[in-house]
Write a structure and sequence with these properties.
With 285 residues, this protein is an alpha+beta fold. It folds into two domains: 8-141 and 251-285, Bira Bifunctional Protein, Domain 2 (BirA Bifunctional Protein, domain 2, 2-Layer Sandwich); 150-230, no CATH class. The protein has nine helices and eleven strands. The strands form two sheets. It has an eight-stranded mixed sheet with strand order 1-5-6-11-10-9-7-8. It has a three-stranded antiparallel sheet with strand order 2-4-3, with no helix packed on it.
Length: 285
């Protein structure tokens, strides 16, 4: 029996203080992004193309349009922003920098509010620094984890390490690979661990150098390095970052390619930022 006051598990309800904080976060973010030259876009809740963003399509909520074509509810904003800007808006706009403030929904009833931005042809440095600026406006000082998705792909394609093993981070199985340098790769965690890369083969070394360069250009005071992290979003293909406060993921982003379009973007998870800000408010009292 479903009672009148119940809401589905995974859906969101904001009222009073939490609703006020949500509105403030979204307003401040929109103002900052506009000042940085981003234009706002609101994409449709319904999409024909969400499946390209997910390896596991079970997370998509599906229905059909009036012509019986499969439609899914928006579970990811990035692919739709890039596709709409490049293919639908086309020559009607010259802007390369876009931001959105909107929710995503996934199966069965998970609702997630996001503030995100995409820069067509953008750099890792610019998108990472923009994310840091937004979080600074919220008085958040999370840990930044920098990774490079190309490294797990190389381990899989050239060195026989399964992506399933890398996704689940089964360290014993990873170390069990017959590679003289694999333990050193697993142990990399800090910027200083990147000082001597002589033990690694050239292809892995090149990708580690990209992580090292990113840490130097972003210049954030609280960075950890995770070369084995593998993102489940299919379009990420190079440098990525995640921002953590405790066990809470506040934001993530990086460099990606969608249908030949190279871009950089991030998503800030509004719901987690609201909880974080409310906790800090209680500590300050």
């Amino acid at each position: 029996m479903v009672y009148e006051h119940e809401i589905p598990s995974g859906s969101k309800l904001y009222f009073g203080e939490s609703a006020k904080i949500k509105r403030e976060i979204e307003f401040v973010s929109a103002e900052l992004l506009e000042n940085l030259g981003f234009e706002e876009i609101v994409t449709p809740l319904f999409s024909y193309h969400q499946q390209v963003s997910f390896e596991d399509k079970k997370s998509l909520l599906r229905l059909n349009d009036e012509q019986n074509h499969e439609v899914t509810l928006r579970a990811d904003s990035t692919a739709d922003v890039v596709r709409i800007v490049t293919k639908r808006l086309g020559r009607s706009t010259e802007s390369k920098k876009w931001f959105y403030i909107q929710p995503t929904v996934t199966f069965p009833t998970k609702e997630q509010y996001q503030i995100g931005a995409e820069i067509l042809g953008g750099s890792f440095e610019e998108i990472a620094k923009t994310t840091i600026m937004l979080l600074n406006e919220m008085d958040a000082k999370p840990v930044m984890q920098i990774a490079n998705i190309r490294i797990p792909h190389l381990l899989n394609e050239k060195y026989g390490v399964s992506l399933d093993v890398l996704k689940s981070m089964h360290v014993e199985q990873i170390v069990g690979a017959n590679l003289s340098w694999i333990e050193q790769l697993v142990s990399i965690n800090s910027i200083s661990d990147l000082n001597d890369l002589s033990a690694f083969p050239d292809d892995i070394k090149v990708e580690l150098e990209k992580i090292k360069a990113a840490t130097q250009t972003v210049k954030y005071e609280n960075i950890v390095v995770s070369p084995l992290y593998y993102a489940k979003m299919r379009y990420y293909d190079s440098l990525t970052f995640r921002m953590f406060e405790g066990n809470s993921l506040l934001a993530m982003g990086g460099i990606y390619t969608i249908e030949g379009v190279e871009a950089a973007g991030f998503a800030l998870y509004t719901d987690e930022c609201i909880v974080s800000k409310m906790k800090r408010g209680k500590i300050d009292e």
